[in-house]
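Protocol check, entry for the methods section draft. Step 1: assemble the input record (protein sequence plus ligand SMILES). Step 2: submit for complex structure prediction. Step 3: store the structure tokens unaltered in the notebook. Ligand used here: zinc ion. Step 1 record:
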Amino acid sequence: MTGRRETTSRVKHRQKMLRELAAEEVVYVISGQGHSRAVEALEALRRIKDGTYGICVDCGILIPSARLQVKPEATRCIDCQTESERRSTSHQGDSDYVPRRSA
Ligand SMILES: [Zn+2]
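Step 3, stored output:
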């Protein structure tokens, strides 16, 4: 494996993508809708400035660059993202429900 860290040009490219995502936020705010992806993009841009971009906010590991390539606004690694989505939807969908038969 060559190149263990993000190259400057790659970060610049992501910054550009994030700015485009963040720009959508303006449209959504005007139309009165929240758009979490754009919010995340703004957050990611802030994190690039801080030098904390690409680090999972929950567990602190480096987010794999393959993940950042598909989701440049990601603030969590896949494990933490899955966990956080599971937690936020855990009270929905009673898949364990089995209709009870009268004996
Ligand atoms: Zn994590």
